[in-house]
Specification:
Order of helices and strands: EEEEEEEHEHEHEHEEEHEHEE
Number of domains: 2
Radius of gyration: 19 Å
CATH class of the largest domain: Alpha Beta
Helix content: 25-40%
Distance between the termini: 26 Å
Strand content: 25-35%
Bound molecules: S-adenosylmethionine
CATH architecture of the largest domain: 3-Layer(aba) Sandwich
Largest sheet: 7 strands, mixed
CATH topology of the largest domain: Rossmann fold
CATH superfamily of the largest domain: Vaccinia Virus protein VP39
Number of strands: 16
Number of helices: 6
Oligomer: single chain
Amino acid sequence: MNSPSSYSLLDFGNAERLEQWGEFRLIRPDPTATGPRIHPALWADADAVYEGEKGKGIWTHAKPLPDSWLVSFDDIQLVIKLAPYKHTGAFPEQQLNWQWMRERAKKTGRPLSVLNLFAYTGGATMALAKDGHKVTHVDSSKPAIGWAKENAIQNNLPADAVRWILEDAAVFAEREHKRGKTYDAIILDPPAFGHSPTGKTWKVERDLAPLLEHCAALLSSAPSFLVLNGYARNDTPDSFKRLLTGILRTQNADRKFLFEGGNLLLKATDGRELSTGTVIRCSFGA
Ligand SMILES: C[S@@+](CC[C@H](N)C(=O)[O-])C[C@H]1O[C@@H](n2cnc3c(N)ncnc32)[C@H](O)[C@@H]1O
């Protein structure tokens, strides 16, 4: 994991981020990027800017850009594209989670079976499959699964490293629970609001607790970790801890686990931090 990353957050302020994605420099809106910009001179060199509201905006280009290019996060290569809703195919703040999960998995000294729910373009899938773990990758979006498969090719993953599931996360978890399947590690990165492939809505405040109950039941007899991210305004590390403690204790009173959690932080090159959400990491065992 000692390879350098080619992503960096160069500056933020005035509700925008300036990010280096490999050889290209992008400006994107970010309502949490409050305060003034610290390095105004850097912004003049941006290659593309996302302008307008999240859903209604467009990318405008200062220079011609390729349809896609590769950006590295440690030794993981991700295919980057200028996508709708100011997306690029990677959430750089997840890099700290990828590093933590790999370290945690390494401690078990065995290949783990991992369930990655709301897996998007598969940053976590790539990170764990690269280390020899078997990942079940679940997302309700066909383009997101297609993009994750492109990432699997770029990371030279063996064909049997990932099981690709185009499905509603809650429906899949419930079905796996009924089948008696188990996993050594579970990752959840649910949006505050989303859709199943059939158009059924996902609302975190309504649907998260029942999904976590299925996830708790899906944990193997010697699980390694569970990571839960949150992006709703009411999500806090304490609310996640309370919810998970209740569910994990109800299902198995003897299970030992430890939480660490806080803001999901993205660090700029000058050391300032942007808070992009909430994360709770649960380690099992002694
Ligand atoms: C916040 S993104 C995940 C980011 C990703 N884990 C990463 O850091 O690279 C949310 C993902 O959840 C998916 N999604 C939304 N609703 C869903 C549902 N009901 N079931 C499964 N996936 C869903 C979206 O297609 C999207 O890919």
